[in-house]
Amino acid sequence: MKKQPYLVTLEKGKNYAWCECAESQTQPFCDGSHTKVNKRNENLVENLQEISLISEDSQKLIAADTKAPVVFSADKDTEVSLCGCKESNNAPYCSGAHRNI
Ligand code: FES
Questions:
Q1: For residues 58 and 91, which has the higher predicted lDDT (pLDDT)?
Q2: DSSP 33-61
């Protein structure tokens, strides 16, 4: 994860998938790594259930944290700052939140 935005050029009409999970090797774009993150979380819940170390509320919290890319498109050829810190409140775009990390 990078604690700064990525300056990227977007092409009009093209679809993009911004990485939410921070594990993509093609930042700031998705490479499918979120599926491994989600599977790892599922396995963690199952393991914790087996040893009775997780409450139902905790299970729901982990389940609600399922990662998925943010799919978006550009309405014109443009240069934008995409979030690299994964803390933006305007994802996939940088909101300046990285300044507080
Ligand atoms: S990089 Fe700026 S808000 Fe994430």
A1: 91
A2: THHHHHHHHHHHHHHHHHTT---HHHHHH
Residue 78's alpha-carbon distances to 5, 69, 74, in angstroms, are 15, 21, 8
Q: Does the pLDDT value for residue 73 go beyond 90?
A: yes
Residue 19 Cβ < 6 Å to ligand 1: no
For residues 73 and 100, state if they share a domain.
yes
For residue 32, give both structure tokens.
């499918």
Is 94's C-beta closer than 6 angstroms to any atom of ligand 1?
Answer: yes
Beta carbon of 80 within 6 Å of any ligand 1 atom: no
Q: Residue 53: give the domain boundaries.
A: 35-67
SS3 (DSSP) at 75: coil
